[in-house]
Amino acid sequence: MTLPTPRIDLRPERGALPAGGGTVRALVDLAVDFPPSEREREPLSLALVIDRSGSMSGAPLEHAKQAAVAAVTALRDGDRVAVVAYDQRVDLVVPSTAVGEDRGPIARAIAGVRAGNTTALHAGWVEGCTQVLTAPVASGLGRVVLLSDGLANVGVTDPAAIADDVARVTADGVTTSTIGLGRQFDEGLMRHLADAGGGSFTFVESPEQLEGLFETELAGLSALRGRRVTLELRGRGVRFVAALGGARLAGDGPAGTTLELPDLVAGLPREFLVTLEVEPDAQLDGLRLAWHDTFTRAPEALDADLDVPTLPDADVRRRPMVEAVASAERQARSAEGIHRIEALTRDGRLPEAEAALEALSTEAASWPADEARAAQLADIAHMLEAVRLRDDGLAKKRAFRAVYERERGVRGGALHAMAAMERDWTDAYKARTAASTAAERHFTLLRPDGSEARVEIVVGDLTTQRVDAIVNPSNRGLFGTAGVDGAVHRRGGPELTAACREIGGIKHGQAVVTPGFRLPAGRVIHTTTHPWKGGQFDELATLAAAYAASFEIARRLRLRTLALPAIGTGAYGYPADVATEVAVNVTLRALLQPGELSLVRFVLFEPRMAELYRRVCAQAVPQAAPPRAGAAS
Q: Which of 33, 139, 551, 585 has the highest count of CB atoms within 10 angstroms of its CB?
């Protein structure tokens, strides 16, 4: 399936370069559409890190918990979430786990967070990163969201040191966003972390702003198409010397032919106002856009030709100004004014800030009547309201947010539009996959004695299966703390956990059995395999042994029906294709043996995994009946 090709263009202020050389302002346009809804996006992994320190008590903490619940609600089935709470100590409220239809337990765990004392912000963030890094997601699709008043007074407290750690994890593909709550948070620290983390900074004034907050946050993550984006000029005698809107010059020099651009996000067009240094008789032939694609998981590049003539200087001066460039320059001048106003609010000089805002409003009112003018006037009015109330804290934060949005080059309206497009894309995808998600795939296997056995592939929740036994992919200690293992223990109740503690542990490739206790399944077969380390340490043989040991217990107990997940493909990181082949091959061998077992059901979180299992089964089952849709799952 073909992915949409990004669109890149560069428009000089008068549509041409001066033959005599000089300085030229230009606008770079970058956009990419959403992929077809037939192409499923990768699962996301989110860690919500909630500050529960004493300074967060009351409304800020309640707002943080509301935002966290909104985030869990906004996730799709199969996405992963972890919840961390911290004061002077760090607690893992919800280990990283794939979300399904019932998200009530997660919401109740969040509701139980209570305010504490001091603030180990760095340690809380580290635990959030740890949870994301253990999740099997593509680079760039893991995010830590820190909800805090932005004060750090326990453990690592130096903002620069914290930001350095955030930047290192960003290089590993885990981004960080920050949400500032209340009137007292350190907006400089919160923005610094978001900038280092490649995410976004948001200031929440009231609970009403929480509505849609995580819809845009998750949409930007879900719609991520490319990271490590660069733009290179093709031609001779033309260099970048300045850039705005989130772009920056590559390298350490004051000028060059390459820009580093923000992430490439589907449905979020970007404009970057740049300044070009043009040598005499320069020629600009085109652009080269390069990025690391989150869909193909490979470096990609696009060469775009430009039709930018080099003309005599007088002819260039006679050309009309390109309105898009003129609008970007007006907004850049306004941004400089807002920078000065933000400094005034920071120093508590609100009367001077009020006068400057009024002057800025008069200037913006003279702009052409368009979307940029309306947004500018609305922002100024919002800041003026706080300044006229002489509310130092609110005025400072509103001005800071206005500066941040202009430097980042993304306004709220563009984010909301992107979120709406992502929602439409998601709805189309869900409509397309609804039938296959609800359906079972059936494969019938003819045994040597003439009897039949059946393999079913369903998308659903392993813990809800009414079968003789389910297979639980655990760890050597049978701890039951994360992923499917954690879900089985939570549904099975404390009796199940106690039974596992009594067993004590198992070796890789072994299996043990306990009663199902509160699970619909009568028994739980617990097994484990090695974490994936590239396939050089007999991981696949151990995985096969884990499946075989589970089937041996089923044979010994004369079980008739068994449900299994895709063992090893979660936190242990097994490649889905090879792990599926192992699962199907061992299952078929077990079903061909004499015994009572007549139904094996693979229960998977995601339609893409179900489709992979269907393909492998279709190739491996000699007497496979065609997949039959419409049966109950």
A: 551
Which residues are 29's β-sheet partners? 9, 271
pTM above 0.70, yes or no: no
Q: Convert the pLDDT of each residue in 391-409 to its tens digit.
A: 888 888 888 888 888 887 7
Whether 485 is catalytic? yes
Rg (CA), the chain: 28
CB 145 within 8 A of CB 177: yes
Q: Is the dihedral angle over the CA atoms 246, 247, 250, 253 positive or is it negative?
A: negative
For 248-258, the pLDDT digits (tens) are 898 755 668 99
Q: Which amino acid, residue 106?
A: I
Eight-class DSSP state of 208: G
Q: Which residues of 247-266 are buried (b: 16+ CB within 10 A; e: fewer)?
A: bebbeeeeeebbbebbbbbb
pLDDT score at 225: 87
Can you read off the two tokens belonging to residue 477?
């200690």
* φ, ψ (nearest 5 deg) of residue 120: -95, 65
The pLDDT, as a whole number, for residue 1 is 52
Q: Which residues of 37-53 are buried (b: 16+ CB within 10 A; e: fewer)?
A: beebbbbbbbbbbbbbb
β partners of residue 456: 442, 601
**337: number of Cβ within 10 Å:** 16
What is the structure's pLDDT at 409?
75
Question: What does the block give as tokens for 460?
Answer: 């659903």
Alpha helices (H) in 233-390, listed in sequence order: 313-318, 323-346, 350-365, 371-388
Q: Where are the alpha helices (DSSP H) in 7-155?
A: 59-74, 104-111, 121-133
> Of these residues, 77, 87, 461, 485, which one is catalytic?
485
CA dist 591 and 601 (Å) reads 12
Pair type for strands 198-204 and 174-181: parallel
CA–CA dist 109, 88 (Å, integer): 19
Residue type for position 10: L
How many whole angstroms separate alpha carbon 54 and alpha carbon 117? 5
- Nearest by Cα to 576 from 538, 601, 607: 607
